[in-house]
Amino acid sequence: MINKGTLVLGALIGAAAGVLLAPDKGSVTREKLKREGRDIKDQITNDFTEVKEDLSKAASSGKEKFKQDLEDFASKSSYKTEQAITFLEKQLAILKEKNKTLQKQV
User: Residue ranges per domain, the chain?
Assistant: First the structure.
């Protein structure tokens, strides 16, 4: 796959060579070079804007995925915490019963 930078560079070289080899007056040649330069500048600006938008979309998508993963982790952690609390409550109930039997013997 050819990247945009290579295409722009090729267009710039081709335009410059075509204008410089054309049999026109100097003022006409300079005007053509200015026009080609503006066109290439506009194309580069558009390409950079497109790349910036793509990066922004990728970053936003990554942020949303991270947020969803964090919510999933929090939810799973909450369930595991609830299981641990239930286990500890059962163990505490067992200890209370054992403590009651010890209190009766004294």
Answer: 4-105
